[in-house]
Specification:
With 412 residues, the protein is of the alpha/beta class. Helices cover 36% and strands 11% of the residues. It has 15 helices and twelve strands. The strands form four sheets. It has a six-stranded mixed sheet, sandwiched between helices. A two-stranded parallel sheet has the order 2-3. The chain has a two-stranded antiparallel sheet with strand order 7-8. Helix 7 links the parallel strand 4 and strand 5.
């Protein structure tokens, strides 16, 4: 029996881990950087046609739609992560590797090989039309970037989204660990905290069905890594850094493509003391693959996930306008027994998190809250908590899958 295909909407911003996540999804099941990824895979298949079965969704029928999303957040200034992803979103490979720029005949290639359909008109209307054509609760929506597009989509037609989307998966936020854009905020939630507030954190007025929403914050994604020494050993022995740019000779076009943007990523991560890329968006795609849409009768008081995945409902709010705390998830640690105090750095927090997870018991705070007189006792609305993933099949498992699916390599 053929495996059932699950319609997926991938809401992504340009970035290194986003492109790797897209490639990971190509192999399991799909702006400029996306075109470059398609071009790299097309070149790979020209040289290695026997690898076509590894890319069963490279040219699906009908082809996926490529839709341009919002140009900025719901409110406030536009923020980007050029410091990490570069001006082109791929570590500035446009200047360092001109051979990877799109060829002039790429539009002709798309015409002859309909691997995707570019939507030039109102993308939200086209997306709503596509969603309407699907049966009830059969579509998965994966947000790898800010939640702006999802908020605007719901603003256009909330009922269609509520009826058709069976699973929402989002990578974003930092609950009990430090942020990666500021000391307290993860980038996606920092970029548009207003969308987060409207969709998830408005109590009974929250616009998303929280029983179908899964959040993967930095707390769970950070331990999942692609160590660059392993990438070098298993995939590209010549891989180093921008000091010795990737040479397309003696390696597949896909490997040359990934090594070219990993060069700068590696340098930046080494500045943070880590010779590895954190697989934030890849873990979100993995979660969506392993946890398909759910129907009403499948929903329970516990989060409906595959056996090797677990989630816990967390209570928090988000800071939208703070000078220092924009995008911070604010946990009331006086009453929330599932919370614990952040440590001095992410590594220490993760060590504490692993220790707390060991017995999977009650997560108690590591500090004694200072009791002070307040005007009113804090109100805890358990029904409006957000399901946050706390367990995956493990960092080694995703590393093995990633190496095999994208590069057909084994973990050394």
């Amino acid at each position: 029996m053929a495996e059932k295909r699950i319609p997926v909407i991938i809401d992504t911003d340009p970035g290194v881990d986003d492109i790797v996540a897209m490639c990971f999804d190509f192999l399991q099941k799909p702006v400029l950087n996306i075109f470059k990824a398609y071009q790299a895979i097309a070149r790979h298949l020209e040289l290695f046609p026997d690898d076509a079965p590894r890319f069963p969704n490279f040219k699906p029928a009908p082809p996926p739609l490529l839709i341009k999303g919002s140009a900025g957040p719901l409110e406030g200034e536009l923020h980007s992560a050029q410091y990490f992803h570069g001006r082109d979103g791929l570590g500035d490979i446009a200047n360092r590797h001109p051979e990877l720029n799109l060829k002039s005949d790429f539009s002709k290639f798309l015409g002859e090989n309909p691997c995707l359909e570019v939507v030039d008109d109102d993308g939200f209307d086209a997306l709503l039309n596509l969603i309407c054509s699907r049966p009830r609760r059969t579509v998965t929506y994966v947000a790898l970037g800010p939640l702006t597009n999802l908020a605007l989509l719901i603003q256009k037609d909330r009922q269609v989204i509520m009826d058709t989307i069976g699973r929402f998966v989002s990578m974003g936020g930092a609950v009990d660990v430090p942020g990666n854009t500021s000391p307290v905020a993860e980038f996606n939630f920092f970029a548009d905290p207003y969308a987060v507030k409207r969709l998830l954190l408005s109590g009974p007025k929250s616009e998303l069905p929280l029983d179908r929403f899964i959040l993967l914050p930095l707390d769970i994604t950070t331990p999942h890594e692609l160590p660059f020494p392993i990438y070098k050993k298993a995939v590209d022995p010549s891989f180093t850094s921008t000091a010795e740019p990737s040479n397309p000779l003696n390696k597949s076009p896909l490997t040359h493509f990934t090594s070219s943007f990993f060069e700068r990523t590696r340098e930046i991560m080494l500045e943070f003391g880590k010779d590895a890329m954190e697989l934030h968006d890849i873990v979100a795609i993995w979660c969506a693959i392993c946890n398909p849409p759910v129907q009403d009768e499948q929903l329970t008081e516990e989060c409906s996930l595959s056996p090797t995945w677990r989630a816990r409902k967390r209570l928090f709010d988000i800071e939208r306008t703070g000078e220092l705390c924009r995008g911070m998830l604010v946990v009331d640690r006086r009453e929330d027994e599932s919370a614990y105090a952040p440590g001095a750095n992410r590594a220490e927090v993760q060590r504490l998190l692993d220790k707390l997870h060991a017995e999977d018991g009650l997560w108690e705070s590591t500090v004694v809250p200072a009791r002070v007189e307040v005007e009113a006792r804090p109100v805890v609305e358990e029904a409006h908590g957000v399901w946050c993933v706390t367990h995956t099949p493990g960092p080694e498992q995703i590393l093995r899958l990633l190496l095999k699916r994208i590069w057909n390599a084994d973990l050394p």
